[in-house]
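Aim 2, interim progress: modelling of the tryptophan-bound target.
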Amino acid sequence: MTASNTPRTSYDTAQERSDAIWEQIATDPSGLRMLTGDRPTGALHIGHYFGSLRNRVRLQEVGVETWLIVADYQVITDREVLGDIRGSVRELLTDYLAAGIDPERATIFTHSAVPALNQLMLPFLSLVTQPELERNPTVKAELQAAGKTAMGGLMLTYPVHQAADILFCHGNLVPVGKDQLPHIEQTRVIARRFNERYAGGEEFFPLPDALLSEAPTILGLDGAAKMSKSLGNTVMLRMTPDETLAKIKKAKTDSERRITFDPEGRPEVANLLTIAGLCTDRDPAQIAEEIGDAGSGTLKMLTAEALNEHLAPLRARRVEIEQNPDHLFAVLRAGNERANEAAEATLARVRETMGMVY
Ligand code: TRP
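Predicted structure of the complex, ligand included:
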């Protein structure tokens, strides 16, 4: 069997496109408009930071136009309790700005403040079928993770809403984790069908590409597959150096004294080495060699120190930002204004294209 007979998945294709875009970013990032974002569920942890936030700041720095959505309507897809949404939005904004997102260059906005974006969901819903929505593996996994059996209407259709998030500003670059690939594929399907069905084959909406992070995935400090605040297996960006040290000290390791970098055989030890490597821009295997027989106590001290040193400037900015919450919400209002302009312009053109001008 030749390589060309190996079944190719849509994941392979997305990965290839993503690799090509990384090259384009390095040579000529003009014409790239990134749209990505988060559900506001509170402050961010180092998994978010190394997995996506740091990457976004780098893209902003090389001149990629930056749009960040604070997806507040996505919070209510899988929970009945809304909680302190304003507080969660404030924490998220604080982490964005502390990490280096520059509100002068980036547009930060929320779903709920941009009505024309939300209205795009109606024509978009006409372009997808129920079985298509029900097949989405990420939505299915999230339903299960939420411990639910009955699917809510917003949960079933939020990938369509997410297509509106991306397409309203003609975003063509969406930096996301692998779990979001089904949503990007859904967005491409919607853009393609809109262009065919309502725009006479014109390229009204661009087909956006996912940009997959090249950073290694970080596990939870307890060895779980993912860091998550609710599992308590993480270091929050906003923690103090002492809290960070205490968390890292409690991280799971193993009883072997000699430290080696073996992600398959010793995932927890490798995870700490990976974190230390990300902080110092060094090869985790080399750090392991240097620690050698000094054991996991030394590894933990070294990792906590590396983290604290790396995060010190971010944390200092965080404290400054916290002292002026009015500024944060002013940044958000300015972003919402820019997002409204873009969304209203797009919606006006959509209605024109669909002949709905009266
Ligand atoms: N669903 C995304 C997440 O959980 C957040 C998000 C909302 C998003 N709208 C988006 C990401 C649009 C990229 C593009 O991470």
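The chain is about 55% helix and 5% strand. Residues 35-39, 69, 71, 74, 162, 165-166, 174, 176, 180 surround tryptophan (CB under 6 Å).
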